[in-house]
Amino acid sequence: MNLETVSKLVAKDWHLHRRVILLTVAGVTLAFALVFAPGGGARSIGFTLAPAMLISVIFYLPLSSVLGERDGKTITFLMGLPITPSEYVASKIFGNLLIFLLPWLAVVTAIVLLPEGRAHAVLATGFVPVVLVGFVLAFSFVLGFALITESGGWTVALIVGLLLLTSNVAGELVPDTPAVRQAIRSIAERGSAFYATLAVEVLLIALILASTFAAQARKKHFL
Amino acid sequence: MKPLAFRLQKVRKVFEHFTLQDVDLELPRGSIMGFVGPNGAGKSTTMHILLGLLRADSGQVELVGHDIPREQVAAKRQIGFVSEDMRLYGSATVGWHIRFVRSLYPSWDDAYAAELVRRFELLPEQKVKQLSRGQRVKAALLLALARRPALLVLDEPTTGLDPVVRQEVLKEMLAALDLQGSSIFFSSHNTQDVEQISDLITFIHRGEILESDDKESFLDRWRRLSVELEPGTELDLPEACSWTERSGRHGVLLAERFSDGVVPALTCQGAVVHEVQRMTLEEIFLTRVSGSSERRPS
Known about the structure:
By secondary structure, chain A is mainly α. Chain A is built from eleven helices and no strands. Chain A has helices spanning about 5-15, 20-35, 40-70, 75-80, 85-110, 120-125, 125-150, 150-165, 170-175, 180-190, 190-215. Chain A is globular, with a radius of gyration of 19 Å. In chain B, the strands form three sheets. Chain B has a six-stranded mixed sheet with strand order 6-7-8-3-9-10, with helices on both faces. In chain B, strands 2-1-4-5 form a four-stranded antiparallel sheet. In chain B, helix 5 packs parallel to helix 6 (about 165-180). Chain B is elongated and about 70 Å long. Chains A and B meet through helix 1 and helix 4 of A and helix 2, strand 6 and helix 3 of B.
């Protein structure tokens, strides 16, 4: 695999999605400006806007950058160039992950820099890092799924399923037992369950991306 | 023996409703091959296999001296590919495409690219989505030509173009051949284009190569004969001749391998040959395709 070629393909995707990158970073910045703004209404909008921006990237990027190449027939142009399937897949994984990590890092930076106060107290719980890494996990899952299935319909179905799973449904599925309550408390207080959950998330991200690359890079052709 | 731009040997690809059947094809360097077939004949599939975009189920592919798909990157450094169903990035400019493709080709010729931009009347700052169909084909052709390819693979490049732009595209293809000694493998269902620029012609139909020969041989071999004979007379037709029309005293014969002996062979049986006409490539192609369809069980 030629890393120089991969970096050129990554740069291509960054160029083609530069407006989305700028918009999402601007959106996250606005969200945290609202969190700091006086008044509960603005703060509430800010708290909703930041994850909404990340979710929109999870929706948009795999559909546009991965499936859009096929639907837009630009893949025929791309694959006529001196590029291997593994270089193409590597560029899609790294390029898209880096694009996603930009607004994600903006969220993380804003949380770290939050001054002491009510918002800080909420964001300082162990749930926030778990949820933030969970966003990266969800993005990796959707990206890998889009790369492997090459299907817009199935990818949208997966995203809807993930949204359901991580909203109300999750609360219904988790049994209300003392052990679960203890684990949730441990995550909130950054105890051992917190670190274990983070480790599992990071491991899953690595596993998903590596297996996506391994599965797709073995392909000998593109169409 | 001339070195080859490509060689396909016994290449087979099976899809659910279509099979590319043991394709044997080769193109000497510096030649132009017109690849003619109706829609769905297997032209694009053959080209995609040639470039390593699709993998054949069996057979061997050699492209500019490289084994495909194993050495596809090295091969594609010497290839310019333009396809009718290929799209450039609509939101990016012509200039961005030039810079992107240039970064992947050490052989990129800046001066030639600038010359093509001028000749094709393209604006580097113009977005691809703002270009007309003809301009998009020209932009794709520019990106393929300025890398100075040893082989141009063009899959229906003139489809949907108006006659003026079509002539410009064909002219530029020929200019590229003159300038850099490239080979061209050019598919089309427009036999006029193929007849105009090709040295070699290959007919493909239903995934099968019907015939492959140089253009002059094709045009020299085939003749249409207007024949008059007494009603009820049955002729013992010379080899590779067949009736295409017959009513009453008049009939039209097609000779696939016309020679000086065909007319005497008919006249000595009492037939009067009124006219012997050369056939166009389109007529030859239609005859070959219909003949192939009749032989095949439905």
